[in-house]
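Comment thread on ticket #2218

A.B. wrote:
> Attaching the input chain for the structure job we discussed in standup.
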Amino acid sequence: MGTQYQNYKSDFVLRESFVDITGKAVPLPTDVDFTLRYWTKHGREYVASRQGGVYTNCAPEEGGTLLVFFKAHNLCEGELHHELHLALDNPVFEDGTQDVFYPADLHILLWDKASSTDKLTSGLVADYTRGHAFTFDDFTADQIKELQRPAQEAADRYDAAIADYNRKASEQVERVGDVADVLEGLEDDFKADHEKLAKEMTDTTEAAKSALASAEKTAADAAKAAQTATAEAQAAQKRANAAADNANAAQKTAETAAQEAAEAKQAADKATAAANKAKADADKAAQAATSAAGDATANAQEARTAAHAATAAIKTVGQVTDDARSIAERAEAAAAAANAAKTAADKATAAATKAKADADAATAAATKAKADADAATAAAIAAAQRAEAATQATEQQRAVLYALIDRAQHVTAGVPTGMEVEAPATVTMGNPVKQYVRGRVLPTSALQNVLYLADGKAVDVLPDGEIVPQAIGTSRVHVIPTDGTRFYKTIQVETVAPRIRTTAAGTMRLDKQGNIRLT
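C.D. wrote:
> Ran it. Output below, let me know if you need it in another format.
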């Protein structure tokens, strides 16, 4: 049939005729409800139907044809398609109804130019509207060959697809082997690096612990030595202070003795001078006595007086000598005390010097202990940093391994060769029973990753395929396998209002409990 052209803005009438595979006219059954859905590539739809014996947007003709009236159809430019939906009585199904669909192209193009004819016609192959299946007796040999041709072509395509699949599978097996070799090498490297890092972490940790323990012991010994040196220095300081006090007292005693000795010396000098003078006087008196011997009587008294004076002078000299001797003894005792004080001061100074040396040694030991502790702390920090770096390297290697494993799993999965989609043609607003779109990637060994994209006009589809009715009408849903987008399928889901289901005789359908059955 050649292409027919119709102005898309105009109202028009389409005569639908139903034929079997041989082209023989098949009368439209009068006891089966049907829906005819029309659309262009832009997705807008126009519906003609008969439900419960009531015709909408259409009327039957004698001879089994059907006139469809396109009034205010609102269809856009593009090729016109239609689909016949029959609700056949079939007790095999749960609700007693079998839904059958017959999509077809009309070879009618809606455009913005003048219509090519005022009588549009179509012929829809729908032999099952009579309610029975074909037999081979209904067809000629050529018709059977023609009927078998799509199956034969499909079989050829299947054989070619299987051959291509086997080839790709072989290539993938080889790639998997290569990836497995790489994974084994990486796993060996990872184990070796892990063992090396673990050993380094253990050695570093043990070294840090040992250094820390040594530093703590050294610091404790240094602290103890410093405490001991401090106590000795304090004791030496006390002894030095006592020696200094003794030295000061001895110095004062020596100064006092020296002063007394000086005073005694002065007194002795005076006594010596007096003795010398008395001796000179005695000498003079003796000379005078000798010279005046003749006048002994006259001068006897003077001699006795001089003798008494000499005797007194001699006694004075003896007293002065005794005093000088006592003063000298006290001076020697003061000198001895001064010497003892000096000796004690020297000992105290030596003890203080030793205590200072011990304190300096303790300070040096404490400084060394602090340096060792700082070195141990730095070693522990460096060990922690190396451990952190090793952990990060391990995590990076782990991420690489996981990525390679995911890649290997992806490579070993089957190559998609097609997809099957199961979905209800209609859903009812307010129906609490959930309906789903089910996409299955072929072969089943392939990754079953599927996306559902709906236009959202009549229904939305959740990521798990659940259909959510939104409004009365029809929506297009794209079912897309992520690993083989070229195998996507596009389906249409219609949302209808709740309505009472009827039998072929037009009576209400009831369930086993006598409840009214809704669509």
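A.B. wrote:
> Thanks. Noting for the ticket: The CA atoms of residues 195 and 201 lie 10 Å apart.
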